[in-house]
Amino acid sequence: MTSSSQFGQFHSTRWSLIAQAQVGSTVGRAALEELCNTYWFPIYEYIRRRGQQPDDARDLTQELFASILSRDGFARATPDKGRFRSYILTAAKNLISEQFRNRQTTKRGGQVRLWSIDCATAEQRMQWEPLDQQTPERIFEMRWAKQILTDAFAQLDALNAEPTRREYYLKLRSFIAIDSDTVPYAEVAQELQASETALRVQVHRLRKKFRELLRQSVAETLVDPGEIDDELSYLLSCLRA
Q: What pLDDT shows up at residue 230?
């Protein structure tokens, strides 16, 4: 995977890889499927907020991704617009507008494997953060931004999964996204039997790595590396709304 300091090369990210892949490319299709698996929930909630019931939203979400992952859909998934976020939202809008047509997921998806969508869990996620005062499009962007953060944290967790460092890491993980002045370094240092200076260095390193992973997660959904900062700024602004 391209590191954050090598975005000029950028050829190995998922969405740009899809642009280069030939129709039927195993690598390109796998990249597209991974993006779909990662970002299905923002689409599911978008469809729900557009008035669909849970079962219908589940079916439409599956149908959308099955269509994209089919041979014809894969051929059309050229990221000439630059952002996977924009592409998938447009696809969802088009599907909703055609919802009264015959929509049989297995027929449209062909032999594409459909992942399981847990409606109950998805509905719980919606209830935890009710956003009824926002438009479906704005909610989609907020959920997308949150998924980007979740993805970055998951990668950071994986890098710190060794049992010998896990407890230490988990104590510091919650300090990554807060102001340094509010971190109780002295208290945590005493609890972990470490020096306050060492903790400050570790938190700094974790924050730096998290920023790299966050940029990488954003980069995966773009073609042009020049758009990373603008996209990241926009997504973070969505979370502050």
A: 95
